[in-house]
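Annex B. Sample input.
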Amino acid sequence: MCVLAAPALAALPAVVALNAAVSLALLVLAVRAFPPPPIVTMLVATACFGAALVVG
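Annex B, continued. Sample output.
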C-alpha cells in the first residue's frame, strides 16, 4: 500500500523499516492462524523488506 499511496516515500529507510515490522507481525499472525500459503507469502515479504533494509 505504501508503494501505491506514495511511491516517492517508499524508498525512505523509515518507511521500509515500518513495512518490515508490519510484515513481520503479519508473519507471526500467519504462522499462528493460517495454513502454509499465507505463511510463505509473508515470509517472502519479510525477507524482501529485510534485504531492502540491509542494502538501502
